């Protein structure tokens, strides 16, 4: 029998790997529902759904290796990043999924709450929070919604050479801002933005992508800390926020 590997474990979700099968156990069955529906609609490589028995979703492994990990340089080639950009463009040009996404007003309210929490708890210097809050305002504008992955972290994209072999973890998929996907993918890997956009093509707004870098790092930090992750690890969210101070 294959060994059981714990891939991710926190209070909301546990993902286990047994051989070529991933078992995702989620306390909210709506997440698996969105994931299954999104993968069926997305015109890009996705894992195969093997079976679903709430609260467990079983999916097959995708070939290749992750595009990279947060906090370490990506070993993938520029061609691989460009190929990812092309695949993301195909997703963004697909028909919208038939459920509601998060709007700008909800994003703005969450930014207010999380910045207040960061200040009240002394998690980061007030100047770092204030500067990144100013930058993050650039993402708070009305956007034309597209089909977004919604959590397009670098670890969720798999490549084999310069070919995209699969995109995983679709539970946040929804109509949303295209620049959000591009920002999450390059968070902490800003040097790869040119390669990504070479494949993505025209229409990307670099200023909005940079704004989403700050916004994402600000609003994600409390959740990460509360679920056993370290946003202050090298190359992670706090370094992203500090880097914006050097840009000032």
Q: Which key features would you list for this structure?
A:
Aminoglycoside 3'-phosphotransferase, Chain: A, domain 2; Aminoglycoside_PTrfase; 248 residues; five-stranded antiparallel beta sheet; transferase; three-stranded antiparallel beta sheet; single chain; alpha+beta
Protein described:
It is a single chain. By secondary structure, the protein is an alpha+beta fold. It has one domain: Aminoglycoside phosphotransferase (APH), C-terminal lobe (Aminoglycoside 3'-phosphotransferase, Chain: A, domain 2, Alpha-Beta Complex), CATH 3.90.1200.10. Helices cover 42% and strands 18% of the residues. It is built from eight helices and ten strands. It has helices spanning 29-41, 78-92, 104-120, 126-136, 178-186, 193-200, 206-226, 237-247; strands at 4-9, 13-18, 21-26, 49-53, 56-60, 65-66, 146-148, 157-160, 163-167, 174-176. The strands form three sheets. A five-stranded antiparallel sheet has the order 1-2-3-5-4, covered by helices on one side. A three-stranded antiparallel sheet has the order 6-8-9, covered by helices on one side. Strands 7-10 form a two-stranded antiparallel sheet. Helix 4 crosses helix 8 and helix 5 packs across helix 7. The protein is globular.
Number of strands: 10
CATH class: Alpha Beta
Gyration radius, rounded:
18 Å
Largest sheet descriptor: 5 strands, antiparallel
Order of helices and strands: EEEHEEEHHHEEEEHHHH
- What is the strand content? 15-25%
* Shape estimate: globular
Total discrete domains: 1
Could you tell me the mean pLDDT? 95
The third-level CATH topology is: Aminoglycoside 3'-phosphotransferase, Chain: A, domain 2
**Distance linking N and C termini:** 55 Å
Query: In CATH terms, what is the architecture?
Result: Alpha-Beta Complex
How much helicity do the residues have? 40-55%
Number of helices: 8
The CATH homologous superfamily: Aminoglycoside phosphotransferase (APH), C-terminal lobe
**What structural class do the secondary elements suggest?**
alpha+beta
Q: Strand order across the biggest sheet?
A: 1-2-3-5-4
Low-confidence spans: none
